[in-house]
Structures are given as C-alpha cells and as structure tokens.
Amino acid sequence: MNQIIEPIIWLNIGIAISALLYFTLLKNTTTFRFNRFFLILVPFVFVALYFMPWSQSITVFEGYAVNMEEFVVGEGNGQSQNQQTNYLLIGLVSVLIIGVVLSLKNTLTAFLETRKSVETHESVYMGDFEQPFSFLNKVFIPKKFKEEQSLNYIINHERIHVEQAHYLDLLVVEFFQVIAWFNPFFWLLRKQVKMNHEFLADQGIVENEKNINDYKQVLLSASLGIRAVSLYSMFAQESPLKRRIDMINKSKKPIHWLRLFTVITIVGGSALMLKSCTEDKLDQKEEQAKTVQSEIEPEDIENIEIDPKFPGGNEALFKYLGDAIVYPESAKEEGVNGVVYCRFIIDKDGSVKNIEVLKGVNPEIDQAAKDAIANMPDWEPGVHKDGHAVPVEYNIPIRFTLKGENEESEKKK
C-alpha cells in the first residue's frame, strides 16, 4: 500500500514546491518558456527521486531475514495492519475517482462542444459556443465572432496555443488533478500553467505584430468591457488582462543565473531533505528489527526467485493473525502494552520453525505472539533460482496496544 501512497505524497510535495518557487522567484519574469517546463517538470522530478533505488523499498534485510510489516493487536481482538490498509485503499480509490470525474468534466464538455462546429478554414472551426478555445490541434471560434474586426487576433492567438502544443501541458495538469485535486497548491499551479500559456501566446502575437499597440488596445478594450465582448470572454475568464498587458510591456530578459541557481538549489535541497527523512525512517525500521546470526546461507537469500507465501497471500496472513492473537487478560488489567519482535523460519517444506522472541514485553504477551506464529498452517516454501526449496527467515513486530494508550499516542501526534 505504501508503494502506492508514497509516490502520490511525493508528487503532491513536488507540486507544492513548484507552485511556491514559481510565485516567489519566477512569477514576474518574462522567461515564459523556462517557466512552462519548470511548472510541469518539478513534480515529476520528485516522483523520479522516489523511484530511485535508494528510496523505493521499505523492506530491509539484516542478518539475512525478511522484515515484515508491523501487526497491531487491539484490546478486543487482533486488528491487522492489512485491514487498516484496506481502509486506506478504499479512501485512495475514492480520491482517485473524484479526481477522474473532475478531470473528465471539462474535457468531455469541450469535446461535446466541438461536435457542434463546422470547419471554415484549415483546423479552424466555427460553432454555437460561448468563447474561443483550442482543443488538441484544432481552433474553435464562436459564430458570433465571424464579423469581429479582431477575429485574426483571436485565431492567431489560439493557433499559437496549438503550435506550441499547450494541450500537452494541460493533459499533464489533468493527470495531476486526478491525484492532487485535494492539494490547494495544485489549483495554484493549474492556474499559473494556464496563465503562462496566455503569456506565451501573447508573446507569439507581439513578436510578429508590427503595431503592438493595436493588440494591447484589443486586450485593454476587453478588460474594460468596451465592445469586443468576445475577447473579454476569451481572455478574462482565465487570466487578469492587466497583468498580461504588463508582461507585454516588459522587456524580454533571460533568466538571471543567480535566480536559476536559487531555484535549482531549493528544488534539489527539498528533494534531498525529503529523501533523508525517508532514509531515517528506514534506518529506524532496521534498528528495530535487528536479528541474531542466522543459520540460513546468504547465497540462498540472494538467489531466491520465489518468496515463501502464506496460503491465500498477505491478506489471509494478517486475517489469520487477527483471529489467532488474543490480548492476555492479565496484561490488559495491568495496562501492559508494547511491541514484541519475533523471528521465525519458513523451512524447505513450508513448515514454521525456530520461533524466537528477539525483544519482548512480558511473558504472557510474548507467549501469545509465539503461539499464534507456531500454529500457522504450512506456507508455500521459497524457491531458489535453480529450482530447489530453501528456508527463509522472517522478522515480524507485533504491537499490543490498549485503547487508552492508543488515544494518548494520537494526542501526542
């Protein structure tokens, strides 16, 4: 489950960093092309760092033992971490479904609108819709704009969006929306991506326009609500026109090396800090699960092709533990709780043997954990690359937690 949730967390952190840095250092610059790729790529940089070998796995090996996920036993009956994970999975799926619905809404609406149109020029379509827009590689213009004197500006503006493939950025943004719609920084980033597209389109018009004032006048008229209602609908809906005119008036300057260095340093530093926190968490897991010297040959572990499998898989394993482990009444009465670290071996025939408590809580709790492991049904054994069965050692932390203790730990969080 963590392998699904953690990349989403990293992506959302990347989105937040991208939005914050843009607002802090890049928002008022004229490096629109650089800004375009910065806004889109930084979140992917964080995801890429997550999937690099040093940060992708939470399974550690110490003394040639496989460390299992912590299992939680409550006061009443066993509550498996896997059951908790199921709730997380339901929540995650719900989040993704909402994101998909939100993302498809605008795209589907635009697609349905395009079906009302008729091609008048190459890749230019007119139809009964409210405002001009581009969809993939086509430009769509409302019929009411047909007699507008500024029609060429409108068409050329939308064509620049098409030529520069801004729709690719929007597809990426829609992907972000699926898994980050709940992130307030996503909505800031989304708005700035679209705003930057308008800056790029304005820049494209201005670079090829002899009389820049004419184009600025069209924008200004739209912002003041003078005639050109169509342009107001097109331009003002997604971006403040005053800011666009200000950007047109700004002289085009390359990004200053110091600003670029600052951006790269902050992005890199943030990613490394996040990586460091993840590594510290892994180190803690390793320290908790240290084992005594194993009797299993290192070569066997290194060359395992098929891991041992509990009948029915991990979900069945945690269900079994939830049913088999009973919180001792004496421990509950005395308010005893804690984590029991157990080690056991799945032998070549799939049987469970050599059950040990590496670090216990008290005799009753320790025995409850050992009994549940001892009564496990036979597993499917691990298989070496050459086809023969091999023994595999496992460590499992089993946390016994009382209601009051659990509530207290939640308060501390």
What does the model show?
The protein is α+β, with helices and mostly antiparallel strands. It has a domain at 291-412: Fusion Protein Consisting Of Minor Coat Protein, Glycine Rich Linker, Tola, And A His Tag, Chain: A, Domain 2, CATH 3.30.1150. 57% of the residues lie in helices and 14% in strands. Strands 1, 2, 3, 9, 10 and 13 form a six-stranded mixed β-sheet that branches. A four-stranded mixed β-sheet has the order 4-5-7-6, with helices on both faces. The chain is elongated and about 85 Å long. 27% of the residues are buried. Residues 55-63, 77-82, 224-238, 285-295 and 406-413 have low confidence and may be disordered. Belongs to the TonB family.
Question: Number of helical runs?
Answer: 15
CATH architecture of one domain: 2-Layer Sandwich
H/E topology pattern: HHEEEHEEEEHHHHHHHHEHHEEHEEEH
Overall structural class, as computed from helix and strand content, comes to alpha+beta
Percent range of helical residues: 55-70%
Over the alpha carbons, how many angstroms does the gyration radius reach? 30 Å
On the 0 to 100 scale, the average pLDDT is 75
Largest sheet: 6 strands, mixed
User: Tell me, what's the shape?
Assistant: elongated
What fraction strand? 5-15%
Report the CATH C-level class of one domain: Alpha Beta
Poorly predicted tracts of residues: 55-63, 77-82, 224-238, 285-295, 406-413
CATH topology of one domain: Fusion Protein Consisting Of Minor Coat Protein, Glycine Rich Linker, Tola, And A His Tag, Chain: A, Domain 2
What is the distance, rounded to the nearest whole angstrom, between the alpha carbons of the first and last residues? 22 Å
The number of strands is 13
